[in-house]
Amino acid sequence: MTKFNIIVLAKQVPDTRNVGKDAMKADGTVNRSALPAIFNPEDLNALEQALRLKDKYPGSSVTLLTMGPGRAAEVIREALYRGVDKGSLLTDRKFAGSDTLATSYVLSMAIKKLEPYDIVIAGRQAIDGDTAQVGPQVAEKLNVPQVTYAEEIISLEQESVKIKRRLERGVETVVSPLPAVITVHSSAPPCRPRNAKLLMKYKHSRSVSELQDLSEDYLQLHRDRPYLKIEEWGASSISADEEKLGLSGSPTKVKKIESVVFKAKESKQLSSSDEDIDSLVKELIDKHTIG
Amino acid sequence: MNNVLVYCEMEDGAVADVSLELLTKGRSLANELNCGLEALVIGSELNGVENEVFSYGADIVHVADDKRLDPYSTLPHAKIAEDLFRGQKPVIGLFGATSAGRDLAPRVASVLKCGLTADCTALEIGDHVDNKTGKEYKNLLYQIRPAFGGNILATIINPETRPQLATVREGVMKKEKVTGNHKGEVKKIDAGKLLSDHDLIVKLIERHVEPRKVNITNSSIIVSGGYGVGSKENFKLLFDLAEVLGGEVAGSRAAVDSGFVEHERQVGQTGVTVRPKLYIACGISGQIQHRAGMDQSAMIISINDDPNAPINRIADYSIIGDLNDVIPKMIKYYKKNSK
Ligand SMILES: Cc1cc2nc3c(=O)[nH]c(=O)nc-3n(C[C@H](O)[C@H](O)[C@H](O)COP(=O)(O)OP(=O)(O)OC[C@H]3O[C@@H](n4cnc5c(N)ncnc54)[C@H](O)[C@@H]3O)c2cc1C
Ligand SMILES: Cc1cc2nc3c(=O)[nH]c(=O)nc-3n(C[C@H](O)[C@H](O)[C@H](O)COP(=O)(O)OP(=O)(O)OC[C@H]3O[C@@H](n4cnc5c(N)ncnc54)[C@H](O)[C@@H]3O)c2cc1C
To answer: Residues A133, A168: contact at Cβ < 8 Å?
Structure first.
């Protein structure tokens, strides 16, 4: 039976889909702490594709990589509850301020550490940075083909993968040799829920830094069950060139950030009465807006 | 050399609208920077494509014409783009934020090790002083884009690296032919020489792409419906109004997600951007992501039964009432008054 080494890339993001008033600070910047941190939605679609491959090819392994601050360990736990075998948290002050080029460099170096791998599966786009650039850039850095906007991984063979892609006005099916980087579109099936057994198994899983603040009982538990440990990799553990990290490795700089404010207009309020509609329509015709 | 370069995408045998919009923007940036405008067209059977590109202001068009280059596929297009960028060394490179452009541009940016800004809504030329080093930069490209789900607008610059790359969605920039009989130079790219087997390892098995049925970006009157319209059947009201006014029908994402109208008609951050003479928003609350696609309309009328709906704050006229009552009245009085 064929087995595959599958790597999933997932990002922890602020939930920008439900931004309330308290999420914007007076100076127009985003108050990240007012937004719940979640598993990036399309990365859940990506995770599901990986888990389906594991179901189909037992003995395959799924490893999750996430780059972020310490609290991003939560993304790895969520993935363990759903069936990944292990995960590593890429965390280092030197990674801070990375744009997509620096982010994809870090992810590609971490992937190289996991060689040999067969397939890397990412989400199409993260809902905070919203660029959809990281997947293709990781592929370029690994010098492997990319297949973006995957809706379904139709089949996986020893040396190739067949994928259905979602395009603006249609679909296409392509076959790519392995290894390859796939980015998954939100139209792919949603992720399975947490598995109760796995939740029990992994609920005490912690990263090295999280363990520092915990009691001796916890440390003992981790000595007895080494699978509970979430590895943390910094710049040196992935042999990264420091010049290519963080701000120095990021060609793009944010010059200015503004919150999107209403340019409230002086609006005329009308009722739905016949008189109001009649006079509005007349006015529009007179102004040559319509007619 | 050191010009502005636009990657032109082909759609149904012609240059895509988004690319013509970028040529128009590229022309004005080039004028401001006192440099030329170059276009790159990659595809198959491209005879005559230069005329269209020249009429939007390009001074040089690079054409890679080879049957293996159509339809779009990442690796061969990336190879040709990379080679041209290395040779021509443009200061700015623009791509449409389409399925193809958003697949290609990041790969090209990564191989050139330069910055790429996604989904820009404005591009301007400006200067910059680095706060830390005090170093001054002249004539940078200000790349202005929404992020955080549309809640913020960020101005992004690439001070040190060239080219400065950006993607822009369709409809965001205006397309305009240049006046007079603008002619440029055609430079053929020998694709056969550039492409190796390695660039052709991803094979296309099957492809179903529908031709574009509606193009709401070109319409001067848009009747747009939201979740408040209630059903696909009820959207007929909007089609009726659009027909008498000579406009097109559009929708919010909630209307599209509920299956009331096709995705091609979606206006907003993840749909198209429109700037018609008149935009009538029926049963649309006016969330930030929707407004991003229509707030440049010359006149906005909202029809909403909630006087506090955010759309009313950007509307020139807000009709507070039930759209099922208001729309038939608009049709009735239009017919009466237009005679
Ligand atoms: C307001 C704002 C605007 C920005 N604009 C730009 C810009 O225009 N250009 C630019 O280069 N950078 C930009 N950035 C920086 C960019 O957001 C970060 O580099 C970020 O780390 C990755 O980009 P993204 O969120 O767009 O991810 P995307 O490219 O949208 O993510 C695609 C996929 O890559 C994977 N992935 C992405 N990040 C990680 C991660 N940290 N760990 C694991 N997997 C990951 C996930 O599978 C994800 O679904 C911007 C940031 C902000 C705050
Ligand atoms: C990242 C991101 C991208 C997005 N992109 C887009 C996008 O491109 N385009 C987009 O539109 N949205 C987009 N959205 C979604 C957006 O946030 C809103 O959810 C959406 O625009 C709401 O659509 P709506 O106004 O039709 O529905 P609702 O918000 O439900 O509003 C319905 C309105 O109809 C009114 N109404 C109800 N019944 C009647 C009646 N009988 N007569 C008159 N009025 C009535 C109600 O008062 C209400 O104001 C995006 C969201 C995110 C997070």
So the answer is: no
Instruction: For residue A66, give every residue at least 6 positions away whose Cβ sits within 8 Å of its Cβ, in sequence order, or none.
Output: A9, A10, A11, A12, A72, A75, A76, A87, A88, A89, A90
Q: Which residue from B110, B315, B325 is facing A141, i.e. has the nearest CB?
A: B110
Q: What is the CA radius of gyration of chain A?
A: 24
Q: Which two tokens stand for residue B94?
A: 């623009």
Q: pLDDT tens digits for B147-205?
A: 887 888 899 999 999 999 999 998 899 999 999 889 999 999 999 999 999 999 999 99
How near does any CA of chain B get to the CA of A13, in Å?
A: 10
Q: What is the CATH number for B154? A: 3.40.50.620
Residue at B247 is within a domain: yes
Whether residue B332 lies inside any domain: the answer is: yes
Domain boundaries, chain A: 5-249
Rounded CA-CA distance B111/A120 in Å is 19
Residue B107: list chain A partners with CB under 8 A.
136-137, 139-140, 146
Cβ contact B204:B69 at 8 Å: no
- Residue A47 Cα, ligand 2 centroid: separation in angstroms? 29
- B263: domain CATH number is 3.40.50.1220
Q: What confidence tens digit (pLDDT) does each residue in B262-298 have? A: 999 999 988 899 999 999 999 999 999 999 999 989 9
Residue B272 to residue B218: CA distance in whole angstroms? 11
CB contact under 8 A, A176 and B202: yes
Examine the domain organization and report whether B66 and B148 are in the same domain. yes
Residues B167, B243 within the same domain: no
CATH of domain A5-249: 3.40.50.620
**Could you give the number of structural domains in chain B?**
2
Its domain, for residue B115, covers 4-200
